[in-house]
Amino acid sequence: MKTRAFRYLVSGGTSFTVEYGSFLALYYLGHQSAVVSNTISFILSLVTSFTLNKYWVFKSEQQARQVSHQLVIYSVAATCNVLITDVAIHWLVNIDVPAFIAKMTLIIAVACWNFLLFQKLIFKSR
To answer: Which residue from 28, 29, 39, 110 has the fewest beta carbons nearer than 10 Å?
Structure first.
């Protein structure tokens, strides 16, 4: 279990770098809105996160049909996450929370609830 938690932190750090880095680039350099930047960065991180969590953190090696099922559940969870964070980042930026702080706060919140979701539902051991 300690190894899984460590791997989740490393995977999360990698996904964080992809998500936060692309958010900052899109928002501050690309002059995109906070919601557009959040959505695109979240999708980029989703691909990184799914791959690392499935094959390295939780070492989930099911057959193709089960992988499809995992991907569907993962995608539904990700869609809920991005919708919640889009609303939250829009609200936070509108009340003058700096975008980089709002995004960081939301990434931390999502990482916490996702660990439980991944372990108990998506990549659960049989």
So the answer is: 29
**How deeply is 46 buried, as exposed, middle or buried, from its count of CB atoms within 10 A (0-12, 13-18, 19+)?**
buried
Residues in the chain: 126
**pLDDT, tens digit, 9 for 90 and up, residues 35-76:** 999 999 989 998 898 888 778 887 766 655 677 777 787 788
Tally of CB atoms within 10 A around 102? 23
Tell me how far apart the alpha carbons of residues 9 and 52 are, in angstroms, rounded to a whole number: 11
Question: Which token pair is 28?
Answer: 């501050």
* Residue 24, C-beta contacts closer than 8 angstroms, at least 6 positions apart: 100, 103
What does the pLDDT look like over 4-36, one tens digit per residue?
Answer: 889 888 998 999 999 999 999 999 999 999 999
Tell me the domain boundaries of the chain. Answer: 2-122
Asked if 53 and 13 touch (Cβ cutoff 8 Å), the reply is no
